[in-house]
Queue: 2 jobs
Job 1
Amino acid sequence: MTAGTGRWIRNFVDGRYVEPDENRSFENIDPATGRVFARVHEADRELVDRAVTAARRALRDGWATTPVRERAALLRRAADRIEERFEEFVAAEVADTGKPVTQARQLDVARAPANFRTFADVAAAGQESFLTDLAGGRQALNYAVRKPLGVVAVVVPWNLPLLLLTWKVAPALACGNAVVVKPSEETPATASLLAEILTEVGLPAGVYNVVHGFGGGSAGEFLTSHPDIDGVTFTGSSATGTQVMRTVAPRARPVSLELGGKNAAVVFDDVDVDEALTGLTKSVFTNTGQVCLCTERVYVQRAIFDDIAQGLAERARGLRLGDPLDAATTTGPLISKAHRDKVAGYFELAEQAGAQVLTGGGVPQLGPDLAGGSWIEPTLWTGLANTHPAVREEIFGPVAALIPFDTEEEAIGLANDTEYGLAASVWTDDLRRGHRVAQAMNVGTAWVNTWFLRDLRSPFGGVGLSGLGREGGESSLHFYTEPTNVCVQL
Ligand code: NAD
């Protein structure tokens, strides 16, 4: 088998890597150094069509009706194989994203086998059934047979490439679907590498396909507009998500949208400041702020506002930017120069509005080797109004605005004053207040005294501009299957 990564990152269609075409390719850049480390073969419309056709055929050839225990066993073997080749995935993910190797090991790549194992277990769950009471003492038996949705288009972003990909591919396969995956153009490597694993563990040809390329006018649009897909699961920005919804609308296919966030942390003055600072540091700066769940708004009760502001700034200054392969590095670059320009644009806007910059606000100098990378300083502001663009729009960088509040009611109002609704965290020693405020958050996920603690069986998604639908556990089973209700009069 020709490898899916190396100098070339290849498309994977109908069980084999596709010979790349030099004339239809783009560069894959290491964001830590700015150097090109591979070329990616961009799929054209015809190749996307071949992938969808292969997926359809694979379903008919028996994958859709393979017993669930066999599919689950295959997924568990895939999890084992990823663990055996763990460091290859780590290397590919670090080269693609520039993220610190320690994070890639502990979070990104570790989540891939967890995704496969969780959905192998979840898929084995039973069917909904119940009795309906009829006139005259008779009854009817109702049950739903869940069938695979069919050919599922999977479109994912660059920030947690393998984690987010396997979060969708694992349940899709567990439920008997065939997938055509379109990874981000910024981070194509691990999707192609995963094809090797799935082939090795015996996944039939055509069940997992990868097409590389961009969004509009390229593989992303060719795939989501294809007339023979049965549904789209998308993770990415709110703007693209709504575009994908429009593309799919004329054919009324189901979409699952996991979109952007502008997440709040609400910190009450009864909290252990040190513990809260540890949690906040993680929630603002993990993955250089490039997690949809990252906190970009920190509301702090007035009595401890200065302690939290100064403490968080000190923790931010203690982050170590540098070579992603150095185990001591905590913070990598942003994904690209274009994204850095966007984040830096908010630095200017905040300063123009008179924000106080507690720390950061610029581009760091990291020596000749990393000079070409898209580095940015972790940055904190105070003095911004809740209406300022830096407090309203998703920046997707290592940044946060800190804003004081006096009462619980005021904090809830400030946190909910947003078009987004992905996640929030509440920091308090008062458990009743924790429950009360968490439930009042208009979001898909609200944490109390923690952040990014995920049980893959729980529903995940957002409200408002943060998305549509839920995935995870049973919610994934529901999205990746179509139920047929059978009603039998007894
Ligand atoms: P993006 O929307 O630019 O791209 C996401 C994917 O969509 C990429 O593969 C891209 O090529 C593709 N795409 C772009 N235009 C398309 C089109 N017209 N048709 C079909 N496909 C198209 O997002 P990004 O910059 O890669 O990722 C960052 C965004 O993702 C942030 O907004 C972040 O909050 C969000 N995100 C959300 C979650 C979540 O679970 N809610 C998780 C991670 C990231």
Job 2
Amino acid sequence: MSTARSHTVPQHVAIIMDGNGRWANKRGLPRTLGHKKGVEAVREAVRIAGDLGIDYLTLFAFSSENWRRPEAEVNDLMGLLKVFIRRDLAELHRKNVRIRIIGDRVNLRGDILPLLEEAEETTTRNTGITLVIAFNYGARDEITRAVQALAVDVAAGRLAPEDITAQRVASRLDTAGIPDPDLVIRTSGEERLSNFLLWQAAYAELVFVPEFWPDFDRDVFLRALDVYARRDRRFGGVTSAPTLAVGS
Ligand code: IPE
Ligand code: IPE
Ligand code: MG
């Protein structure tokens, strides 16, 4: 299904899907309808990313801080995740999509965890785009859990403190084995990371678009990719742009 990725298309795009509530508010609708419409935008985003040959698409679906929302809204969001996986898993599997879930799984509701595990297990051998769903995810929580796991190894004498390298820390994060995002897009005009991929996005290009998440479509995606393609990524070095021949 996917075409070869052109060199200006990022290998890994991560999206902070923001603005469902404001999308609904603007129309005098309950926030829950904004979330519902947001699921359609998720389907669209996965489709477009696959068509463009993007290898990894990470979507921030529910943060470890989103539990602070009213119980009814939290329940709506949990319900939508369940509906999404139940309705879309077969289709995603058919399209060769591999699903990975990042975030804390401990204390997740008993009706959610098995679904997430089923989604991962069913698609584990697929070779198309990897869809990473960040659910109950917070970067500080993720890094803290990685540090705790390393501390256990040190305390047990399996690991010397000086062997804790950046690479080893990365290998204990939920994203182990997934390349760092090249591009992080946030919708709705907010310009912050809200505890998303703080370690992995160290050198990601950040693109903020004004559209609310339910309005995310091919045009918005392509515009963000266009901004990305014109950025000069230096990774602390000097410009990678080819130098012009002088005097020719
Ligand atoms: C994003 O939309 C969805 C989640 C955070 C789960 P919001 O619900 O944050 O919408 P706004 O930001 O209030 O408009
Ligand atoms: C970030 O959006 C979390 C998700 C998109 C899942 P929020 O709407 O929760 O972030 P803040 O509260 O505006 O920073
Ligand atoms: Mg928001």
